[in-house]
UniProtKB/TrEMBL annotation:
It comes from Brachybacterium alimentarium. GO terms for cellular component: cytosol. Residues 5-153 form the NADPH-dependent FMN reductase-like domain. This is NAD(P)H-dependent oxidoreductase. Pfam families: FMN_red. GO terms for molecular function: FMN binding; oxidoreductase activity. InterPro entries: Flavoprotein-like_sf, FMN_Rdtase-like_dom, NAD(P)H-dep_reductase.
Amino acid sequence: MSKNISVLVGSLRRGSFARKIAHNVIGYFPEGYNAHIVEIRDLPLYDFDYDDPEVTDKPTPPEYMQYREAIKASEGVLFVTPENNRTIPACLKNAIDIGSKPNGDVAWKNLPAGIISHSVGRMGGYSSQKNLRLALSYFDMPTPGQPEVFLGRSPALIDENGDITAEKTIGFLRDYVHRFTQLVDAHPRD
């Protein structure tokens, strides 16, 4: 039975560099892993009223339920995100917040997480990755250690077909996926 890896892309744009990077990285997972993108584009904005037992006139949206179940059915989650205004994009923060409720059934709890950030500039999404790590630290999510993945000047890494072609970058990402799968193997979900 293959291990399920949810890939969350922190950009809603169809042609985003984050999505192209994610599609490349999915192909680097070894046999025995089912890595796939879990879409976050149609998630309603997070509102605690949906999860508050005291509020009876606002039922939880079905999109919340489907998303939470997809994350809970995962053995690991890989975030691939750009940087927006020195932090994570709003759509990704929304997805994290939705997975953090209800309090007694948090989808993220102890779920191994990998993070790949990128930017069109040189910093490679450093600020977005640090902010994402801060948000995830609350849920005891193990992450691979060094080296972290900050892909700077991401448009130059991807050819007209959406493929990453630089062997050095491919090798670096394959190594990260290998370390991430080792982490997933070492931290099985209950």
